[in-house]
Amino acid sequence: MELKRQNEYDSNNLVYILKEVSELALLPLSEKEKKYAQKRLEDKSELISINRMDGWIFLVAPKRDKGEEVFFEQCRKKGSELAILASGEKLEELGISGTETQAVLAVAEGVALSAYRFLNHFTDKKGKETSLQSLSLIAENLNDADVTELANLVKSVYKTRDLVNEPLSHMNAERLAASFQEMGNEAGITVDILHKQKIESLKMGGLLAVNKGSVDPPTLTIMEWKPENLVNEKPIVLVGKGVVYDTGGMSLKPTPNSMDYMKSDMAGGAAVGGAIYAAALNRLPLHIIALVPATDNRPDGNAYVPGDVITMYSGKTVEVLNTDAEGRLLLADALSYAKKFEPELVIDAATLTGSAAVALGQYGVAGMGTAKAEVFQELQKAGHEVYERVVEFPFWDEYGELLKSDIADLKNLGPREAGMITAGKFLENFVDYPWIHLDIAGAAFLMQPDSYRGKGATGTGVRLLYRFLKNMVD
What we know:
Layout: E1 2-5, E2 14-17, H1 31-42, E3 47-51, E4 56-60, H2 68-88, E5 93-98, H3 101-114, E6 134-138, H4 144-165, H5 173-187, E7 190-194, H6 196-201, H7 205-211, E8 219-225, E9 236-240, E10 242-246, H8 267-281, E11 288-297, E12 309-311, E13 317-319, H9 327-337, E14 345-350, H10 354-360, E15 365-369, H11 373-386, E16 390-392, H12 397-401, E17 410-411, H13 419-428, E18 435-439, E19 445-446, E20 456-457, H14 462-473
Helix pairs in contact: 2-3, 3-4, 4-8, 5-8, 7-9, 8-14, 9-13, 11-14
């Protein structure tokens, strides 16, 4: 999808974002078209289509009664509706205009994200591709940098969705690492891939335990963006769970239909890779490091089993009660490894627990950790701005007591109640720096379409983390 800034209209298919009804008088519409639009607006229509035979006019009038953040989300959703209409009419380009620059960008974002298709494995793509190829953005205060930034962010979400949508047959741990290498080469990110021998020498017992049942070796990908003129003295470290497929291991998942989308269990890893990719493409003056420990989790004859005790990279011992609580094991090793970078802040993202999905559904991200309240507030602010909203859950010491083991330093599973919090408390044992844990399990992969988030991989986390990082600079 090409996005470009225009000073004037060069499209037969035009979108006008209305701030007030009176703006109808200023638009190049016939009197008949104005009367039609006026009537539809009086009927509270938020998207009006006018077929001119040689092109289309679309008028967008999102509701403004619930605050700025909701308004911009409505703009994105109207953009998604526009994408559907445009594709249905086989339109190849749209011109998007309005007096409010941010509204124009939000509508364009909704259109562009809705144009995503994952068609890698169709032999015949005819009828499945979107017809839309380009968007022209027109607004008085819009500049090329705004459009480039949005285009790079959309591209990063696309890349992330592609990684998550790829099945294990095409995306094991080594291929995931290779994909990050390709992204790094393009964006100027330094990428270092640790393979099994190096991971063994580091004694990353959590990652190695989960990998024991796999025929494919694990990887730990380290991505670093460190441009000149940095605004942070210590790096921001992003850590993402990279379980490229999860059977549950020897604690096999109970039903087949709970496994068909388990290719998405690396969505956290893909998200942090996508976020640092977006930051690099847009040249954010921040020192950022992304860590993605990756493996699949399978019940082979040599797989780790419930009752095992493993020694983690940090030296702590963990009693394994359930091999389907595997993500926290490899995340814990990566979080311990992050200490070597002396980070200002570490944020991890993971499809870690079903409890998060039960609590928030697809509409939010569960957050918790040890960072100061001000940092959480900034992350939540970014979440509301992009509508990947973060709900902070309590992180009381009592939840940590539930992870005490009779035979090791701690166990990898607490009771059913507050499962997302005890998972976070497990990870807390491996950090000694400001840290936020994000459980994106409910929002990362959808079984039914949801506006511009689509169906399948949503790319949740990329826009959230990028906006948080950008706000640190602004």
